[in-house]
Design brief:
CD2-Gal4; 2 strands; mainly alpha
Length: about 550
Amino acid sequence: MAPSADIQSGGAADKPCHNCRRRRLRCDRKVPQCSKCAARGIECLGYGQLFLWTGAVASRGKLAGQKSSAALYPTTGPPPRRRSRQASGSVATPSEAGSEAIADVDADVISSHGDDAFVVSGDTQLVCPTSPNPLEYEYENEASTPWALIDPIFQDMKYSQRQYLGYFSSRLCRDFVAYDIPGHNPFRNLLPLTQAHPLLRQVIIAASAAHMYNRARPWLGPDSLDRGHGPKQMLVDALVAKQQVLQMMPSALQSIDSIDGDVLLASVLFLINVELIESGKQNWKAHLDGAGRIMSLLPASSVDASLRNYIISDCFVYYILESTFRPSAADSRSFFDSCQGMEILEKTANSYYCCPPELLEIMLTAAKLSNKISAEAVSPGMVTTAGVTLFNRAQNIDVIAWAREVSSLPSIYKDPVLSRFRVASGHRLGTCLYILHAIPSLDSVYSDEMVDMLLEELQQTLISIPDDDANYKATAWITFVFGASVKTTEMKEWVIDRIKRLMLESPWGFLYAARDALHKLWALQAEGRGNRSWVQSLRDLDMDFLVV
């Protein structure tokens, strides 16, 4: 494409040429063509608007016979990197500096994951490349994704917005399902809705930017459990997008009848996820309560039914996990208590949490039962009897049959039945441990040997789950329950090391909150100020955190 006609020859353009922007080079902005293009002997695409025909076949140049500019970049290595500002010897404008920060850090952080990245191609399209090695690139072939970011609906968005949406498609989406199978991750179906729904677009950008920021934070040392600051621009982008979401939410709630209910519920769910990615403390609770109210008003689904099921399933799982560690008023009422959550959990076999629905129901019942211990209307004998029933139910759940429900997965996932069995077994053992500690009166029924046996079996189960297992991310709650139940210093150090490995795999901030809660709990126990039940001690601390 020739330079724009409104730029006079001999002057300077106000932005880099398309070639330099694509290749992440610093352009000298000379008119009619930049000197870098001339020196390399290629045609300068100029500075004006560049029109692309999506899916068209190029007739000449490097793209001859290709339908996408993704062919400019190799699919076996990391994305091309932009030169740093120090190396270029000049000072970038604020907008350029922000884009460079995102591009540089993303190349540094994500290159260690092979093709787990997105490639930025100029200002005109964002292409998620495919990998010849499916083990490194779990969604195998992004070209099979119907809404990859080469679609024209994304072309009017800002450069950074498309980067974050691309990151959501290529990386963040994996955290919301157990197996990121091409065409079977309903959360990726949210992308085409972002153009028409700014609320959804901004909350996805906030989640992606916060997740990228956490991944980019360097560890302070090889043995350190703390991390330094990441790129400031990513943090700013996350906070700005989050603020815009909070500003748009009141008007969206007032017009819930005219706005797609699934889009609104998805926005609230991702607002919860933003809080969990940032820290996992405080603000998530109000958003979770709001999600319950929205679900009670939802009409029939107007979009993908599986998408609604997975959104509601995640909200319901969050509600159950919240109930296990936080106190609740005896007269509290929630939509989650009345909704048919178990039926929805049965429909979401690929849920990120990888837990049999019956176990989740037992966890919720045990949490409610432990909150009734001090209630005058419930006798201690009734609580103990109910606790024994729950414990026996949890012990006898057939996790093998549940694990076999998903057996027809692509060959890229090595033995998914074994993976599901291990994680589900961990949930079964963790739930049994939780019941014994949540209902202290069970001490009269089960001996300390039972607790020790459960701890030993749970540790061996956790050890058997490798860090690269697709369901490794689903073991945070189990690890926390194990850590709260152990007594020796050696076991506590093992728990903290495992939490750090979880941070490396899933850089969500709630893991830091879980680590801090364990340290406070252990400090209480060391001082002899702990409650008879660590579950009750945790509730007394009222730390307002969530482990998912």
